[in-house]
Amino acid sequence: MDIQQKIAHYYETVLSKTHLRTLLDNDERNKHLVTEFDGILLDYSHEKVDAELISQFQQLADNTNLFATLKDIQSGIKFNSTENRAVLHTALRTPEAQQVIVDGQNVIPDVYQILNRVKTFTESVRSGTFLGYTKKQLLNTVVIGIGGSYLGIEFIYEALRTHHEGQLKSKGRQLRFLANVDPVDTIRALQGLNVEETIFVINSKTFTTAETIMNAKVCRNWILEQYKLLGHENAKEILESHLTAVSTNLAETGKFGINEQRVFGFWDWVGGRYSVTSAIGVLPLSLQFGYDYIAQVLNGAHSIDQHLVNEKQVSRNLPVLLGLLGWYRASIQKYQALALIPYAQCLLRFPAHVQQVHMESNGKTALVYPDKHEQYLKSACPFIFGEPGTNSQHSFFQLIHQGSQVIPCEFIGYAKSQAETGASNPAAVRDQHDELMSNYFAQVDALARGKTKEEVVAEGVKEELQHHKVFPGDRCSLQILFQNEANPYNVGQLLALYEHRVLVEGILWGINPFDQWGVELGKVLAKNVRSVLLKNVENHQNLDFAGFNANSATKNLISHYRAFQGKQ
Ligand SMILES: O=P(O)(O)OC[C@H]1O[C@](O)(CO)[C@@H](O)[C@@H]1O
Q1: Residue 522 pLDDT greater than 90, yes or no
Q2: Are 108 and 96 within 8 A, CB to CB?
Q3: Contact 287, 206 (CB under 8 A)
Q4: Candidates 6, 255, 394, 453; catalytic one
Q5: Is 78 among the catalytic positions?
Q6: Superfamily assignment of 93-295 in CATH?
Q7: Is the entire prediction scored with pTM above 0.95?
Q8: What's the gap between Cα 166 and its chain centre?
Q9: How much is the average pLDDT of 28-35?
Q10: Residue 211 CA: which ligand 1 atom is closest?
Q11: Domain ranges, ordered by start, for the chain
């Protein structure tokens, strides 16, 4: 029996037959299922685990050479085998004095060359040294980008915009996002902005993503139209004052009309969804908050990068534990979903960010080393969703408590509210924060313990309602608790924690988390549909589908779309 089979056997014969209520009655067990690192507590006592299972997790990590692999990845091996690339987002936050060698070259000087340019440029914008075309200060930033070139930045922006220091640093400034190719998103992103005070950051690793390039063109037109209304028509100089880009495709950014001084590069060894600590995130976030403040995000992430490879006891390694538990829930317990519940309004975009990082990375089943019998995994990445608590309690928690399937939850909370620093009545804020966190603790317990028929009867509930009021319990969750309020350092830690847990799960499953072939097919088909629509702009009757390879149902649907437009 290999170690994965041993874990499956132990779960089937022991843990699946033991209610969490019983496991939690063991004080000695509970004491050991909690660990702390650098201001973060991870409590996994409400998971279906015990000391025996944790020792099996250790064997699993050792037998799969997990720690050696993690170290090799951070040292620059081409772990992304299907694209022949290194996986080195960790190098983006490595201290300047260290070395990371890729293809015989130390990449750290390149990282700092870009970071220094970002620092100098963003400081010149913030101080008013670099001005817009009409010499007005650039107070607004619009980030154009999608997927990994958008979600992580929005998560960090939202997480920090109510942090006391973050508010001071960003006073008088705005940061907006344009991701969707929907024209309504464009209106929302640009609404009320004064072009003379607005700088655009076009974020695209490839600079070929259809949505981003279209949005960038729409914004370029908007800039020129707005300036025309003001009587200015020097397109080249106007655009050079208002457009910047972050990309690995410097040829295309040049063709787009962006001055190379305002293009910030990165490298193919940074995956799109892992690029928030490259200039993709650091440039716009530094424009909004200042470089030195955002550098703390990099420091926090680096702390977790180090912890990942240095702490070889799985019971003390936060990202490894998260990854092992994720693997266990999906592959052994066979749970197919995961709810991410931050008890922190500032993390409202964290679930959306993790959805992309996790599901675009591990949402696949093709094995890296297939054999004659197996090319595909049977169960892998769960479906991930989430909303801040307490809002989620008044939304989907009914199903989490009494639905037909178990949905493991990950709760994230802070011992201090961002609202406390600088508050006129800090005691009142603490009181409100305690109210919020009371729900965090209560949910954890309710999910695990549930409520038995006997308890319901003892409460004197009418017989016909009794079975409605039973909670099965035995629903697992884990808790992440930060010592401080959400700040740039621990937001960087949180970012890296979830990046690395995805990697650990990917290694255990034997898949490559760093490619995303699954998004390609839709892109190709969208291009084909687009060419049909372009060819038939005015034709609301019989569309010309020559050369369009799709079934009649899809063609009918497209025809209805055009016909509806003809009736408007
Ligand atoms: O930064 P780019 O090249 O525009 O890509 C945007 C996103 O599109 C994807 O390639 C596919 O969704 C992501 O991996 C990436 O983050």
Answers
A1: no
A2: yes
A3: no
A4: 394
A5: no
A6: Glucose-6-phosphate isomerase like protein; domain 1 (3.40.50.10490)
A7: yes
A8: 21
A9: 97
A10: 4
A11: 3-63+311-418+468-509, 93-295, 517-566
